[in-house]
């Protein structure tokens, strides 16, 4: 049996190579020496004569995680091997533990498994090749544990880094989105203000010029009244009144037009409210097309339009903003009804169709009205484009507002197919 040799052990401990580091604990110096002889050539070794000293050594180490394996005797004074292992479990969680014992101590084995998380329990006297093999396996196991921990740590760091990066990206995107929405709003405001200025200039010119003329006419009438009113004077005064009336009439029409623009603008602003919520689409669409139809009947009377519904029964609740989409539907239904109520020489027909498709739903409004000539197909979506004339009360915002609601707010499509003299089909496609 080789003798316990302090110098030899110190030399082994001092060798600073990449060999795995093992701690050997036994209160019998001879036993330690045997182990050192057996393992010293292949591994870096630390030794300790008892549990208390071992614990102190481990605590003092600043490279604790390098300690791959501890082989400890079970029966030692003051502290058993399993007691020591239970104490250092949290201090060095990746270090693999082996107990050597001369007794088949059942309690110790159970304690070891339950409390100290021991890799192997070996009975003395052990077979050296068997011990070497066990040490080799235990070190492989330690290495694997360490790799897993390192990998988990890297993964955790990576996940944290990625999450942080994503959060940052998200915040940037949100900020960009807000900026874009703001820019879009400003651009829309620009277009709208430009359009408004243009729309208001004519009626305002009329009102300014005609009211000035009216002042002159009043002065003219007063002058006539200050003279003796003969027949010619009466005719002249009547002419003044007639002109005053005509001017007031034009002012009334023009201010009415401006009023309608202001009303439409208010209605346009209102649809930005409301929230998306599940809505039964068939009932919803039918209700608003019906409403437009009855409204026309009431206002214009004698409307003879055939209103038909082809609704896809598979359609259930769809996420929409009913407040705004109802506005869009009303605009489209009004256009369809107005198109068939003119002099088209045929019986008017408006059909509402809904259809479930793979990527969403389609709402179609078909009419056999006057249709739109091809060169106007894109123009009709421009704000203030109307072919209905100033006196009609239309200001040409219906389609542009509907387009904004369907495309910009709901992320859908609004398309128009039309042939002059034959009719028009407007389709809304809403994504699922
Ligand atoms: N279904 C349709 N059939 C024929 N023409 C249409 C139809 N829908 C729209 N149009 C044409 O497109 C133009 C623009 O429509 P839009 O709804 O934007 O404005 P409007 O109906 O003229 O006015 P508003 O809707 O503001 O009362 C209309 O003036 C009309 O010429
Ligand atoms: Mg319209």
Order of helices and strands: HEHEHEHEHEHHEHEEHEEHEE
Task: Extract low-pLDDT stretches.
Answer: 1-5, 8-15
Major beta sheet summary: 5 strands, parallel
> What would you call the shape?
rod-shaped
Strand order of the largest sheet: 2-1-3-4-5
Radius of gyration: 47 Å
CATH topology of the largest domain: Heat Shock Protein 90
| Distance N to C terminus | 83 Å
Q: Tell me the domain tally.
A: 3
Number of contiguous helices: 10
What integer is the average pLDDT? 86
What proportion of the residues is helical, as a percent range?
55-70%
DSSP, total strands: 12
Proportion of residues in extended strands: 15-25%
Task: Give the CATH class of the largest domain.
Answer: Alpha Beta
CATH architecture of the largest domain: 2-Layer Sandwich
The hetero molecules present are: adenosine-5'-triphosphate, magnesium ion
Oligomeric status: single chain
CATH homologous superfamily of the largest domain - what is it? Histidine kinase-like ATPase, C-terminal domain
Structural class: alpha/beta
Organism: Acanthopleuribacter pedis
Enzyme class: transferase
Modified residues (4-aspartylphosphate): 73
EC number: 2.7.13.3
